[in-house]
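Sequence only, no structure available. Ideas?
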Amino acid sequence: MKVRRLTAALACLAAAWTAAWTAVPAQATETVPRPAPVVETHEGALRGSAENGYRTFEGIPYAAAPVGALRWALPRPASPWTGVRDATRPGSACPQQAGEVPDGSTDEDCLRLNVTAPADTSPRSPKPVIVWLHGGGFTTGAGSSYDAHRMAVRGDVVVVTVNYRLGALGFLGHSGLPGSGTFGLADQQAALRWVRANIGAFGGDARNVTLAGESAGGFSVCAQLASPSAAGLFDRAIIQSGPCTGRPERPFAPSAAPLPTVRAAGARFAAEVGCRTAHDTLACLRHVSVSRLLAAQDVDQQPAYGTPLLPYDPGTALAQGRFHRVPVLIGNNHDEGNGWAAGIIQAGHPVTPKTWPDTVAAFFPDPARAAAVGRAYPVTGPDGGPVFGAVIGDSNFACPTLRTAALLDAQVPVWRYEFADEHAPALAPGTPPFPLGAPHASELPYLFDLGGRPRTMTPAQHRLADLMIDYWSRFARTGDPDHVSSPEADPRPWQPGAVQSLAPDHTGPAHTAAHHHCAFWNAQP
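Reply:
I predicted one. Tokens follow.
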């Protein structure tokens, strides 16, 4: 059982799961026609949509289309337009295989963003801004999958969701190529510059911007914290299930790789598409069809460090204090690894006392380490799925998140959480081989309507969703998720330095380090 083969299969399963919760169209509702809002940006006028209590502007170009000679070039400013541009439909997702975007995409003209704002916004009374970076292993995802109207209305904030280049088109490494290995991260910075310049027209406060993301989006926030060229582009940061101390040998969480490694992967990629022996490899690559590029790229991508945009691995940058001094809200889910463990079991690899040693060895090739993991996480019954899920979640997410928070806490205010709804709504139809609890990405429906529709929740879960939006938006407004006008407004205080467990009708401090065996994992090389 090889790790790369398993993770490739799991990426396909994850794509199917994500498609299930983002591809379902919104249910039609009867609405009263409202005047279409028009705003004036530096590039031109935009006509959006007016909804019940909020306004949306979709498919806004924040950079020039990265096509032709601009494929694998740093983002250039979008061209201005005349007249009023329609902004009532999202733009294309960046190129990716079918998955989170149901039919995939081959449209490189994808550097678009979407703005959701409360109906009462005005430039005279600007509101805090949250810029959202989607997850998806740096190979899938789209900003338009995240309907942010609940966060905008309840939180009284302006939300911006962003597309950025993915896969080989976003992270190709090539010698002598400016931006090599970091084009997707550079796109995110271009979007932040656009926000600073234009968000006031939508009623947002350009001086109060929170950069937020989940999974690869969360790790992107880590990269921007460590990027010199992101200085001054955001004022707070939210990192969800994307710890800055991710490592390639723990393959379920996102991580970065040194530039030589990314360049070597780029050379193999060029050979795969027939450009290795070309006189001008880059010119050859720029003529290869998008569909062929997608078929040849690796399942997961890694941004490159040792580059002008990202001089150091984010974990190293944090340890050395080389990051922007902004408040951070950071956390993970209680059962991050269960979805992957379930996928491995459903792919034909049961976890039992007999198979457990080989399963552990597949992910921890060093025999001594594998034996130590087996002793710390024994499988004693026929269903070892939850144990395997705990190994994945603890080693890849929970303990690295606590380590990241500790590094940040030495320099900036840090607020820690763990999402712990053990009955979180399923992200996909079907019955998993064991109860998943609160797996990776299960907190997202509490903040967004994924794929344009709300999840089915109990009253207690709806209360938790409201509380989480309150926490996130308070943090965006003040840098303190627990900032309320009076103690009666929130009887469940979130104390600095404590991990706030987020579960329906049960929110308060939790001792997560012991539960997730972090002393064990911190002792591992």
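Residues 1-5, 11-30 have pLDDT under 50 and may be disordered.
Hope that gets you unstuck.
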